[in-house]
Amino acid sequence: MEFKDNKAIYLQIADYVCEQILLGKWKDEGKIPSVRELAINLEVNPNTVMRTYELLQNKQIINNKRGIGFFIDEHAEKNVISFRKENFVNDDLPAFFRNIYLLNISFAELEAKYQQYLKENFNVTNS
After folding, report:
1. What's the CATH code of the domain at 25?
2. Does an H or E element contain 80, and which?
3. Whole domain around residue 13: which residue ranges?
4. Interval 19-67: pLDDT, tens
5. Strands (E), the chain
6. How many separate domains does the chain show?
7. Whose CB among 10, 36, 40, 89 lies 3.0–4.6 Å from 52's, allowing a Cys bridge?
């Protein structure tokens, strides 16, 4: 995983975990890598992963079964969507709106690009 300078690493790891859940790679109530395992895989300090896991526990995305490990919460997908939507609306959307205004990009252009993106990346066609 390559980290970007514009966002704290623990938040980027949280995005990674959330993406694994949304893509169905990590299933509801399934065990996830331990703090140490994920730290090794991502080449980060275990304290950074622990901070990520604490954040995700507070958002009810994962939970800790003492002595056993961390697991995906049964309502994780719903909670991930809520968490990520809140972040997107508050952090990313204002800059996005500013750019489409400054660059005079129409919603028709955006829709066409979005449909192309869906087709190329998720094999979804416009119905």
Report:
1. 1.10.10.10
2. helix 76-87
3. 9-76
4. 999 999 998 899 999 999 999 999 999 999 999 999 999 999 999 999 9
5. 62-65, 69-72
6. 1
7. 10
